[in-house]
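Weekly sync notes, structure subgroup
Attendees: PM, AL, DS (notes)

Item 1: joint prediction request from the bench team. They want all two components modeled as one assembly rather than separately. Inputs as received:
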Amino acid sequence: MVIAVTSLIGNLLSKSYKERPKELKRWIFYLQHVVTQIRYMRLPFPVIFQQLNAMTEANSYFSDFFNDLDLALNQRKEPIHSAWHHALTLVQRKWHLSRDDRELLHALSDLLGKIGQDEQLKHFQAAIETLTAHEGAAMEDKKKYERIFSTLGLLVGVLLVVLLM
Amino acid sequence: MSILLLESKNMQNEVYELLPPAIFTEIKGMVASLSTDNAIEEIRLRVGRPVELVGPDVFLPSVVTRSDLDYVLSGVTQSSMYAVEDELRNGYITIKGGHRIGIAGRVVKENRGMIKTLRDISSVNIRVAMAHQGGAQILLPWMLSPLQKVLSTLIIGPPCSGKTTLLRDLARQLGDGTFMSMLKPQHVAVVDERSEIAAVYDGVPAFAIGKATDVLDNCDKALGMIVMLRAMAPDVIITDEIGSAGDVVAILEMARSGVTFIGTLHANSIDDLKARTTLSPLFQDKTIERFIFIERLHRQTVIRKVYDRHLRLILPG
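Output from the run, pasted for the record:
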């Protein structure tokens, strides 16, 4: 029982190291899609987020995020700033991102839709660059800690059992 | 009666969706209490000042706040200022339904002195689009040759005299073949630089502009006329507010290709027109066969004067 619990905790910690780079990669992909649509098509955000809602695979938190954003902008007609925060808050329990990642994604809303094309593109490019740096660091962390935590969970469990005996 | 006027006559969904709920409710209440039947033509919102309704010509008691204006702008730009940057340089944005949103604020200039964008927006003028079907019939006696060919025509008048409304109805009647019974539907090409004539939204014109009418939207007039000449082989090309040397070159090219040109121009008199040196090739070449001056009298567009290609007065005012 003790070994099972510590192994589970170890696996959960290990999973967050495993999933974070994947999630960051997806965020970068979606933000790049936004950049492309702004640069070449000048589509407004409600249309871009509607597209992304259709693109994301079901059962992922990205699907919940873009679905909420799509509904907020296209049906509830909410301001984009609050719609973005609301959608992020809705899904942040399900993700494996760090506090820095989360702050960056929330900060992205500050200038959404308020500036011209060049500035809006720079704004997204800066976010993509930072997320790419985060992804690099997350990959390093994954290499270092994923297996450690998974093994550590089991070992701590065994140690506790030995000590208790 | 007045609320019905607001909701059914010209105050379409896309306009009242833009308004903050409190202002919309106030407008409804105000219109209900009015005895006038004049439809709302414009809703003017200025930060720190009351809402003005042009048409009924009244001011609402409450004052417009910065957040009211932000609410309107968020709807107008679809929360995407970058998507309307080009229109913003012209000072207005055309929204679904063909309604024009005029915007004033602080101009941000580019290095070359051109307008880059507007910020600190302080005034918004929502001009409610009105399609006046059948209005172009007043032009009929002046725009057809004895052989029933549509003549190249410039419709001239001051701002808000109804030029674009006439142009839109002309496109519709020529494209539908209803301008006169002996005239079959014409292939009409509309070059709609500011999305005012057809008000295309998501690829679909907001106004009825004729079944044989094609629209090139959001394209420079001079370039657009040449593109449509090559691409769509039109019988008639229609565009709004000509004036540049490039427009004149394109109109001369239309004439050489046997295509009828119909356009509009801001001016008050034939002397104003002659004073514009950029237009002189049109007079020398006698490309334009009719110069029709219009004005707005008692909320109706009327013809004031008509000149022929030799600039001879054929309908004295």
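Discussion: Chain A touches chain B through 19 residues (CB under 8 Å).
Action: AL to compare against the crosslinking data before next sync.
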